[in-house]
Every structure is written in C-alpha cells, then in structure tokens.
Design a protein that fits this description.
The chain is α+β, with helices and mostly antiparallel strands. It has a single domain, classed as SH3 type barrels. It contains 2 helices and 5 strands, in the order ββαβββα. It has a 5-stranded antiparallel β-sheet. The protein is globular. 16% of the residues are buried.
Length: 81
C-alpha cells in the first residue's frame, strides 16, 4: 500500500497473540502512517510477510530512535526485503 520513507517509525512487538504467523515477539517492525487506522486503535505495520497490515496498537510499544539509527535501520530493512 504505502512505501517506506526516511521518516519511518518503529515499534517492538510485545505480544503476537492471534498473529503468531505474522508477528514475532521482541522483533522490531516499521510502522506506516495511517491516521484512519490510528483512530480505530490500529497501526499499519510491515510484518513478517514484508507487506503492511493493520494490527491492534496494544501488541506493540513505540521506539524512539536517534535519526541516524532510524535511517540505518530503514536501509537495512529495505535491503532485506
């Protein structure tokens, strides 16, 4: 749906209950901006399939990363997909 951007946000998965095939606990995931989903308590996450899907926010914790780390992580994730 959306493309990855330099300003990607990241979360860590705290629970994969109900989504064991798609999410791995303690793994970092890229979050794509989706205001409509956020209003419904969801977030658009690029999961293990490499595609973005909506998941309940309660499954994740937001990470605050320094800009240089976020940029390097985005580059690493893009090259891995």
């Amino acid at each position: 749906m959306s493309s990855h951007s330099e300003m990607s946000r990241y979360v860590v998965c705290l629970s994969n209950r109900g989504y064991t095939a798609s999410l791995v606990v303690r793994r970092l995931y890229c979050v794509l901006d989706d205001p409509a989903a956020a209003r419904r308590g969801l977030m658009r996450v690029v999961d293990e399939s490499g595609e973005d899907y909506l998941y309940p926010k309660r499954l994740f914790a937001a990470l605050e990363l320094p800009t240089t780390v976020a940029k390097r992580l985005a580059t690493t994730l893009r090259s891995a997909s």
